[in-house]
Amino acid sequence: xxxxxxxxxxxxxxxxEPTMDFLESSFxxxxxxxxxxxxxxxxxxxxGTDQARPQPLPVRFEHLNLxxxxxxxxxxxxxxCLWVIKRVLRDEVPVPEVxxxxxxxxxxxxxxxxxxxxxxxxxxDSLSIANKIAVCDHLRxxxxxxxxxxxDPNDSFIGSINRHQLLDIVFKGEPPGGPFASVKQFxxxxxxxxxxxxxxxxxxxxxxxxxxxxxxxxxxxHGDLHQGNIIVxxxxxxxxxxxxxxxxxxxxxDYWEYCKTAYTCSYDGEWRIRWIPTFLTPRPEVHEVFAEYxxxxxxx
Length: 300
Known about the structure:
Blueprint: E1 6-7, E2 19-21, H1 26-31, H2 40-47, E3 59-61, E4 66-71, H3 76-89, E5 98-104, E6 107-113, E7 118-119, H4 120-123, H5 129-148, E8 150-151, H6 183-192, E9 218-221, E10 230-232, E11 240-243, E12 250-253, H7 256-263, H8 270-279, H9 284-296
Parallel strand pairs: 1-8
Antiparallel strand pairs: 2-5, 3-4, 4-6, 5-6, 7-10, 9-12, 10-11
InterPro entries: AGP_Transferase, Aminoglycoside_PTrfase, Kinase-like_dom_sf
Domain Aminoglycoside phosphotransferase: 87-262
Protein name: Aminoglycoside phosphotransferase domain-containing protein
């Protein structure tokens, strides 16, 4: 990988397009130019009654090496993120190859590579200490590569990959926020969210705001790096085959990846205490404040 590669929001595929096919992807190369991605109607038919859920389960097309993530809460930004990570970081950060997208009514359909492996969540307890070290060593390589990516130096912001609002589940149900021009601007917004539900919220003094640092770098962040989103091989020693579910990804303060990763697991668990610090720099002092805000927002 080139040192400090850059991602420019202006260089992403046009998210306003209702239909997008990445003809250079392996789907079209392997299946021939006449092969089309399944239509939204075909995906919905295979989903059956599951499509009525707020977030339907992805639909698999095994013979096409294809999986389709769809629903009213799926965002084009996730497909753009997969596309640019594969293009810029290649195998340094393994992600499913994205083949295209469709917008149909309220639903977005993202067509991507079916990764054949097991979740780290399902495999973890059966791994030896040596194999756990091997997985975390690989995760450290992956997160290090991801954090070396830089923004356009003339367009620094905190927001989703396509320079739109933040998509992290922490902000679900809150007024849309972002993009923000600085870390301080983001912190000012984030720290006010728990107080918006109170009368005269502007006059409430937030006791935790001073503990949020106003300085720091902005990093490309997965935002949901729990064991269920890490696909590993069944061979030993295991290898990380892909990091999936980039729905929350974007440009965030440098501590956000650690805080979110630590927040998605047991506070006193071995994964958080022993293993996460082997692939992400611990930020316990910020995490404590972060946890106060997320609890106040009702995030579980």
